[in-house]
Amino acid sequence: MNGDWPYPRHIAHRGAGKLAPENTLAAFRHGASFGYRMFEFDVKLSGDGKPVLMHDATLDRTTSGHGRVDALTLGEIAALDAGSWHSPAFAGEPVPTLAAIARYTQANGYLVNIEIKPVPGDEYRTGAAVALDALSLWKGAAVPPLLSSFSEVALEAARLAASGLPRALLLDKLPADWLDRLRRLDCVALDSNHRELDADVIAAAHAAGFKVLCYTVNDPSRAQDLLSWGLDGLITDAVDQIAPQP
Ligand code: G3P
Ligand code: MG
């Protein structure tokens, strides 16, 4: 917790970074075992429009399935193995739904950053569907999920579907008009590649009323520098090397 910002400064990337299969419940449990209390994860829609955790547009890298995520129904995705690719200890780990993660995180008092990551061409539908689902799954929660996306179309759809859920714009490179973009989308925060940040950029965002998050910081000394400049949220794979503040 940081002043008027209800989220912790340390956020585990895709659950537990690289120590467990990304975007699975096993990863969240692993991240939590290192003291992490907030989790970033990637969400896209199955072919029948259900939000599931998956980074890539295709199933091949992180599951036993093949092809585009939206070519399969939720039932078909639920039958896949999302753990064996990582290591035998995680064989049979399922692909979680957003609903399963909402249950797990709220039962344990954890907070979330939902990255809306549409398959190409499905930006608007995904932004709206994920935001609506998040609104109902976190109804009554003391702290809402923080939504983020590289897709401005998805963020605009999320804004229209669930205006009360806070949004952050993900930017891999900061364009000259980054502040205008945040304002246009009525975002609460910039969430950029950490290489784009220095003390001046963070101060400029704060002066304009925005919080600043960044990804993916795996070097503890870089993390220290960013936090000393007033960074509000640091997304890391290195959950075993970067200790979260209590
Ligand atoms: O949410 C920040 C970060 O996760 C963006 O990059 O590719 O790991 O989803 P990526
Ligand atoms: Mg992500």
Automatic annotation (TrEMBL):
Q: What is this protein called?
A: Glycerophosphodiester phosphodiesterase
Q: What is the phylogenetic placement of the source species in the record?
A: Bacteria, Pseudomonadati, Pseudomonadota, Betaproteobacteria, Burkholderiales
Judging by the UniProt lineage, the source's domain of life is Bacteria
Q: Which GO terms describe its biological process?
A: lipid metabolic process
Native species: Cupriavidus pauculus
UniProt cross-references to InterPro entries, sorted A to Z: GP_PDE_dom, PLC-like_Pdiesterase_TIM-brl
Q: Which residues cross the membrane?
A: none
GO MF terms listed in the record are:
phosphoric diester hydrolase activity
Q: What are the GP-PDE domain coordinates in residue numbering? A: 8-246
The family database entries (NCBIfam families) matched by this protein are listed as: PRK09454.1
